[in-house]
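Q: Can I see a sequence and its folded structure?
A: Here is a first one.
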Amino acid sequence: MSNTYYVTTPIYYVNDAPHIGHAYTTLACDVLARFKRMDGYDVKFLTGTDEHGQKVEKSASAACMEPQQFTDNVSQNFRDLAEFMNFTHDDFIRTTEPRHKAACQAIWKRLFDAGDIYLGSYEGWYAVRDEAFYGEGELTTGPDGKRIASSGAEVEWIQEPSYFFRLSAWEDRLLQFYNDNPNFILPRTRRNEVISFVKGGLQDLSVSRTTFKWGVPVPSDDAHIVYVWLDALTNYITAIGFPETEADSFTQYWPADLHMVGKDILRFHAVYWPAFLMAAGLEPPKRIFAHGWWTNEGQKISKSVGNVIDPIELVNKYGLDQVRYFLLREVPFGNDGDFSQQAMVNRMNGELANDYGNLAQRVLSMIAKDCDRQVPAPGKFTVDDENLLAQAMALEEALRERMDALAFHECLEVIWRVIRAANAYVDAQAPWKLRKEDPKRMGTVLYVLADTIRQLAILTQPFMPDASAKLLNQLGVGDKDRTISSLSLRLIPHSALLAPQGVFPRFQE
């Protein structure tokens, strides 16, 4: 088994401020990266910003700024959000960086030298908002007579000289690749969409523009700039050292284990990107996962409607770990989801405060009060004791399997089964009664509960790092004992504990 794991977010387009969709995508990658690190992997976690293209040039002009100044400002907003959300990315790439321009021109040269790029002339429909070309069959006519792409973006007819990538030549090879790698595109429904699209026939792709200048110049022909998607997709290999493909960083991390994307940009990642890579003599990534979109209280999120969800406002109102938990607990990852204030409060109060928080608070408070704030010494374990400890120990494999499937909601559900079992165990064992009736048995019960909470706190770290760290601190668990391999350890009897403090307060409007 390889001990490296390379996970990427899409690089976010800087024509506007970051929103809940950006936070959601990066959060999923962050949880996965944290879990893999805990499981002993050497993780490379990449995010960043896509800063070229006609849309950025227009947005900069509308803001009365030069494109570089505009992208500097907006890119910083994405950096700030990543820090605010406690993301643990290893690199933040910008497509305006010199390292990326060099990589972009290097892959262009590989494609050109291989005969997969040729000079021609483009005439057709283009959506500036999507930075994408559309065929006639993908368009509808709006009430005002304007042509609209399947994404909802308005298109315009353009005519200009262009270099083309011979995408049509890769149709059969892509279909064979999908057949040979059935888990390359997930969820399964997205895979079916991509295969259907490719079977419908691929046209050669325009990969340069001449009507604006904000981009990477085409090598040997600076009248053209590289099409923004060929530019942007190359970031994934820029960050690990391309074009130095023999460098340790490249051989160590490529092919990427996972590109996480929104469903709206799946075609670029699952069709164009593997074709570009194979044409350049490079391996495609191992997996593309396209997640769904959020609505807000049942409504499609739209700037014009005014219901865009600001993740910073959300965190300031509800708390960081609470928001991280809700976003990955509420809906199966990959599906569309609806954000509801009431659903958020219900999860916080019912699951975080009542289930998990109350379990930890009452157990640690009893130990502080009745065991002199030390880990109690256990006696002989009963069947009930062994059953609860076994349920906690079984979480390791259950989570590993579900993490690899990106089933984050299922990860949290199996964790909560143990939390609910632990609460039922507390009620059944009634340690507050045992204090007088059988103090030694009380110590055993509290020990079993404390060690179960230890394991739960370790395994909830990827989702709720701050709260989990507070629980582990209270249990006296050192930093080196917070990994997956540490789950089999046990709390040391008579170890001193910190004073108990609640970690999940109930939310009150």
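Q: Show me another, different protein.
A: A second, unrelated one:
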Amino acid sequence: MSTRITSELDQIHRTLSENSRRSDRSRIGQFLTPTAIAQFMAGLFQQDVEVARILDAGAGAGMLLTAAVENLISAKGHLQSMEVVAYESDELVLPYLKNALARCRAACTRAKISFRGEAQAQDFVAAGVAMTETGLFAEQGKRFTHAILNPPYKKINGQSETRRLLDAAGMETSNLYAAFVWLAAKMLEPGGELVAITPRSFCNGPYFRRFRLALLGMMTLRQIHVFESRKKAFHDDDVLQENVILHAVRDGRKPKHVTISSSEGSDFHEVNVRSVPYEHVVLPHDKDAFIHLVLNDEDEDVMHRMQRFKTTLDELGIEVSTGRVVDFRAREHLRPQPETGTAPLVYPCNFEHGFIRWPAESDKKPNAIVSSEQTRDLMVPAGYYVLTKRFSTKEERRRVVASIYDPERIQAPLVGFENHLNYFHAGGKGLSSNLAKGLAVYLNSTLFDRYFRLFSGHTQVNATDLRKMRYPTREQLAHIGSHVKNSIPEQEAVDLILEKVHRIDG
């Protein structure tokens, strides 16, 4: 074709962006797909078919379906006819979507390919659940050879009709994007291909466990593309999540290798590509099916080095929990400064050089919680605890930031940990001194941080994520902890200590 139809849509996209407020698009989880990303995604499709049936769920202005049509036409394979079904419930966008379908029809006519396009102005979740129902009286909907989507990024209200429909269908997920991808995968015929751009958050954590298991059970992973820059992929919208592009085929076989690629932004001028063994992407015997993204030789080295640590928290006799004090719920019991009848209250702002400094000099957070029968369940007895921040800022060097609560520094029989913290403990009580210090050193190491980032693409650190990690033995942790005096060693010293443990036990 002398004129690419995706290029023709560029100006239309810009017009739509100008005519719709960014806040309105964000409210419904809608982020328009840039042309370069749409073309890259469509280029991942591999199969050569005579009859193509394309699904675009949450189609927006039609950029993705247009790129898919354009790609199939230019492939010059055995394609004879094409059908596109596009779901979009935003009435403002529908005219643009219908215009895109008309342009696709014209392009197919020029290429002597039969074309049929439908713009379905309805909720995709309701339609998808109905089309994928099983049972004696269920009416099976059509199946697709290709699914391409940029689904909405929006949490599902627990009381909504969407939540009820998904629950009834056995699809447990907390965000619309996972529901869209899950349904699209179910609507593919055997051998059908799925390409979707989503936040990276589905790769780990308990909220997406059922989704990961279902997706990996139905589909064979072919490629995952990672955007190294959080801002550049969707520079026209306020997208803070790290995004990935997923390519998978509906056959449910476990592949030997998965292609992991990456680029800094959406221009794709420099794309790093590597073939990674599947067992490095989804670890064998991992019941939660965390997805690890190994982008380079350094990541591969981190995978190998972490394999030397095989001990689980259960084997260490250590548990990790989320801080019990939710300050807005316990407001009447909080005090700005310690006084008679109170216990220390620890926040992330109390972290200083690897130890808890209390009370805090700032008056932004309360320093104490009243110790009473009403608050007793919110606190733990004095002891050595290792705390990590549940949320790290994008500016922090490490994703996991750990600090030690030292009962020798803070004289109090009880202590409360605020809900933005995770705390490591032994059956609700403190750890031994050297064990706690060694654990904090390990959590603050570059090795731990690099490995954690292989499966976690967001700034939240869940207790579940920390339980999934492997740790040194108790003896190794105690040995590491013996190096800690008045503060956690600097990062370089921490890494040298861990490397020494590697050499001794390797």
